[in-house]
Amino acid sequence: MTGFSDSFQRPINYLRISVTDRCNLRCTYCMPADGVGLVSHEDILSYEEIHTIVQAAAELGINKIRITGGEPLLRSGLPGLIEMLASIDAIDDISLTTNGILLAGYATELKSAGLQRVNVSLDTLKQDKFESITRGAQLSDVLGSIEIAKSAGLEPVKLNTVVMAGINDDELLDFAHKTIDDGWHVRFIELMPVGGESTGNLLFVPVSDIKQRLEVLGKLEPCFHNAGNGPAKYFRFPQAKGTIGFITPVSEHFCFHCNRLRLTADGKLRLCLLGEDEIDLREPLRSGISSAGLKQLIEEAVARKPLRHHLAEGCVPKDRPFSQVGG
Ligand code: SAM
Fold this sequence. Notes:
The protein is of the alpha/beta class and 327 residues long. It has helices at residues 47-60, 78-86, 103-113, 127-134, 139-151, 172-181, 207-214, 282-286, 291-303, 322-325, and strands at residues 14-18, 64-68, 93-98, 117-121, 158-163, 185-190, 221-222, 233-236, 244-247, 260-263, 268-270, 278-280. Strands 7-8-9-6-5-4-3-2-1-10-11-12 form a 12-stranded mixed beta sheet. Helix 1 (47-60) crosses helix 9 (291-303), helix 2 (78-86) runs parallel beside helix 3 and helix 3 (103-113) runs parallel beside helix 5. S-adenosylmethionine (SAM) is lined by residues 23, 29-30, 68-69, 71, 97-99, 121, 160, 162, 189, 191-192, 194-196, 322-323, 326-327.
């Protein structure tokens, strides 16, 4: 079925599913140093429950799924979930967002299960900096995973880089060279004031500034190949096989094109990444709600999607750690 849209006539076809709130990294911009409270295991949706929700959502018009977290590869049996979701007729695109630490060990199995693509978060190309941003991880694990994911056919592998002034903005050109020399697809993301250490706006770098700094290497040409389902705007240098994407949640929100819903690990449909409104699906599911009833709740959620977020007015969601909502 097609034509699922919200009260502002935005087509809704994309569901991001957080399968766990646990993470094996403690990135400074995403989590406070002392970590965050965790949801108890019995409150996390089972794979069967996720499958039931996706089946209902697919009957309404959702056809694209992204698995995220926390770190989704920490949840055991993830390829099994991918296989269950890939067997739903209307679902034609399944992708994963990961920090890449464990990806090398799962890439082939995930691909066989039906996963199409991965986005890997990577904020620096330097080990010492990687260790300090992630509070302790090894860069070589992620670099190795990127190559293995490509060999497994999980392509395009897109890299998500959150740009922070004085932390990694000295590496913009290094990342740009990777798009030219190695065909990498790099997406620069503006830092949002959520989740991590409170640094005010001190680390924020607008995409307009990032783009200008990159253009010392040549003119960035708009590029529509591999553009994906999301808000990134893509460019490439004339001599590059890879692309550069820009994501501007802060300087130029893209809410008017928002096509997504988010399912939290504990079974709430979240209507906006940066808003607190949610509809619970877990308790109705566990109380035996019918498929028709579940679809009605999903429709209610879609009808309640807000027009836009209000970061510019200083409204930041405080109800949950960012890592629970799934970025
Ligand atoms: N663990 C997975 C990963 O690292 O990709 C998935 C979850 S992570 C929360 C999803 C994305 O959110 C990552 O690309 C991360 O860089 C991004 N993110 C986290 N905190 C952010 C912030 N304050 N501003 C912008 N992006 C952020």
